[in-house]
Amino acid sequence: MTEAAARRAPGTPCWVSLMVHGMAATQEFYAALFGWEFRPGPQQLGPYVRALLDGHEVAGIGQMPPDRHLPVAWTPYLASDDVDATSESIRHCGGTVGVGPIDAGEAGRMAIASDPAGAVFGIWQAAEHLGMALTGVPGAPAWNELVTQETASVAKFYEVTFGYEEEAVVSADFDYLTLHLNGSPVASVHGVGQALPRDRGAHWMTYFEVADVDESVSLVEELGGHVLKPARDGSQGRLATVADPEGAVFTLVRSAPREEDERP
């Protein structure tokens, strides 16, 4: 699905960003994998570029400050009409605000927070920069999923903070729910119990659409990345979990056609 950049309803994932140690090598990796080009973005937190796909902004890559020893990870940003109020709500509901709220030049106002289980996410109050101008096409973000130990308690945090409604998958052995805004699914929460990676803990996973998952997996390896979960078929389509050369984990997906896409 392509979409013109527009102001999104609060709680909608509107951007993804990655902080890395080696900007040049990371840009080369994603340019080769997804066909991205880059242009400078706001520099309030240090060197930062925006990734463009066919001229449309789809993601951001920034330089990790030398004094910060944070995990290298893709981070989704959730839309807010008032970052300061959202930050207060996050603290009130048991989360933590680690950065901000701060202004990102003329682009907007932002904060970086973590939920009560420790999963990190951003909050974006748009001014000039509205967020992703493309989603769901090869080379662009397609979905965001929170991977956590169990869904019940942490889902309540997101519902209170962002006003989501939840739709659970009724299954004795599958702890999974979808977060909805205005009747439409915007993200998912997957409780994996003891399978939660000890080295990462709870985290948000960004899915990037690709035309061919198997070809993209081979390319990731050629470019110095790693395959964590080989290509497999699931309810969302064909997918594989990989990491870039600095260890940022993401999922490649060739999305299954949705019912409305199949109608004549």
TrEMBL record:
Coiled coil: none annotated. InterPro entries: Anthracycline_SecMetBiosynth, Glyas_Bleomycin-R_OHBP_Dase, Glyas_Fos-R_dOase_dom, Glyoxalase_6, VOC_core. SUPFAM superfamilies: Glyoxalase/Bleomycin resistance protein/Dihydroxybiphenyl dioxygenase. It holds the Pfam family Glyoxalase_6. Residues 12-126, 140-255 form the VOC domain. It comes from the Bacteria. PANTHER family: CONSERVED PROTEIN (PTHR33993:SF10), GLYOXALASE-RELATED (PTHR33993). This is VOC family protein. It comes from Streptomyces aureus.
